[in-house]
Amino acid sequence: MGRGTRPGSFATCSCSSAPYATDAAKTMPTPPPRPSGTWPLAVAMRTIVVAVLVATGCTRRGSAPILPPAAPRTGVGPGDELEIRVADHDDLSGAYQVSGDGDLDFPYVGRVRVAGMSAIEVAEALEDALADGYLQNPQVTVRVVARQNREVKVLGNVKQPGSFPYKERLTLLQAISLAGGLDELAMPRRVKLTRDTVEGRVTVEIDVRAILDGRAADVPLEPGDTVFVPESPI
Q1: 20 to 30 Å CA-CA from 23: which of 6, 34, 83, 190?
Q2: What is each CA distance from 76 to 44, 94, 114, 193, 221, in whole angstroms?
């Protein structure tokens, strides 16, 4: 035990370690900043959102124009099948079909225009025609058995313009394809689609080129629609 040291006490060192601690702090590399705890979650959420948009088709692709539904046809039209009964004249009674022009070819009276008429109006038209020199006080009843006017028209600058049978989920591009496709003079950016609706006849202009390029969605058609492809001014 040295001089001046109390029993039971410890000697203290007068040297200081502060300079060494300071030097170590200067030489120790600074750790990179730790990312916020919400950053991985934000990245994950953004990835999920992008995946959902791709899966559901919510991209920059344009949507199809919204048209009102076609008006239900109540009158007789081309291709409709009719059951016609003439009282006391079984030879005139039977099944008849409306021509593509909307006429009815009936015995004695020939062709009668019936397109757009109701069944009662068709019966009255036949009664008037038969009473004109053929039968006395004819009694006619008409019933629509089947409606066949399920066509779309594709006109204008296509290779084979005309009327084509409507099939479920028929689209604008498919209808143009049925018509042989666009011809060399077609103007695809201003194709017109006309539809008869409960609010009247509606015509919209559609950029078919955008549909072909994938920048816009194809347009679903309905029975009775008319597609017109104009001629390019150039």
Answers
A1: 34
A2: 60, 17, 7, 23, 21
Cβ-based burial of 195 (10 A; exposed 0-12, middle 13-18, buried ≥19): buried
This prediction has a pTM of 0.50
Among the four given CATH numbers 2.40.10.120, 3.40.50.300, 3.30.450.20, 3.30.1950.10, the one describing domain 81-146 = 3.30.1950.10
Distance of CA 205 to the CA centre of its chain: 14
CA distance 58 to 159: 35
Residues forming a β-bridge with 164 = 152
Q: CATH: 3.30.70.580, 1.10.3720.10, 3.40.190.10, 3.10.560.10. Which one for 151-229?
A: 3.10.560.10
Where along the chain do the CATH 3.30.1950.10 domains lie?
Answer: 81-146
Distance of CA 48 to the CA centre of its chain: 28
